[in-house]
Amino acid sequence: MAYTFPQPAIALPPSITFGSIKLLTKPTAFLEYSKVQSVGESGVSNVLVVFLNGLIAPQSFWLPVMALVLRHLKLGDSSIDGGASRPQMLAYDRYGQGRTIDRDPSDEGKEEGYGHDTLDVVRDLHQLISQTREDSDDQPKRIMFVANSIGCAIARLYAQHHPGTVAGMLFLDSIMANTDFVSIFPDPDSPDFDPGSLPQDVTPEMLHETRKKFREVFHPSVKNPEGLDRRNLATLLPDADKPSLGQGFAGRAPFVIVVGHDPEWFAKESLRGSMETPISISMNYTNPTWHHYNEGLTKLTSPEKASGPIIARNCGHFIQRDDPTLVAELAFRMLGMLAKDS
């Protein structure tokens, strides 16, 4: 099932190409991808930038970002070899998502909606990278992830399972992988619940309704169109600040930039959306919990390699949709860091 949102009018250069691929490990299904070939022999030519989707926003959301990064590189920057090099870039739709119509072959015979989990996605991603990367024997690609929502969790799990490969991560409003999205809010039915502790503009009735809606829509047990099982995600990633990503490419700690949504913008969007979450609920519970989680993500690497949390002004959860210019600028900044760190 594909989700569509208004996209900025940004012309796509011919260097962004599109294709379909069958993984050697799953030869009965196609994955749809978009790609940019690397250019040059220095600078960032040995970087592979991989864009990772959330559950809703497909790879098409990354295309304006890719185009703007290419525009930055064409203009040139002294930190990236005068614009004489560019990284390989890759975006794709997972099975059952966006332009990828085929379902995950490994789901066959399993309960519908619970066929594969994030570790399966990591294995697929590793295979996809191995089949599309432009490595040479003397210059392996450094992986840089640009990820949104659950894509951030996938990036972290990839780094854990493939140490020594990831050089940078740009997290855009990461999923709070260790929560059930219900316990964020106090439970009015709990024996130790104290109504007097509530903010003036929050009532027990509001909490009841919010917890009910979040359980029905966001709880890890809720099925999604691509059939990605999230029920074990909190077990796989129980903490925001660990395990460390210290074993990055060539044993160096990776660069990490953490970006969070605009709290007020997000609260207004949540009120207008189908959930109709009261602004006071978002401002008193969802936003502070999310910001605290983002603060933890900055501790996944060494302090001198971490930036953030940066607040993406006038952006909701899909930061790459709401402000592709910001995302491209941050990605370009990280490429500059990688060029200096090579």
TrEMBL record:
Q: AB hydrolase-1 domain: from which residue to which, for each copy? A: 49-329
Pfam families given for it?
Abhydrolase_6
Ranges of compositional bias, category Basic and acidic residues: 100-115
Q: Which SUPFAM superfamilies match?
A: alpha/beta-Hydrolases
Which residue intervals make up region (Disordered)? 95-115
Query: What InterPro entries does its record include?
Result: AB_hydrolase_1, AB_hydrolase_fold
Q: What is this protein called in UniProt?
A: AB hydrolase-1 domain-containing protein
Source organism of the structure: Xylaria hypoxylon
| Lineage summary | Eukaryota, Fungi, Dikarya, Ascomycota, Pezizomycotina
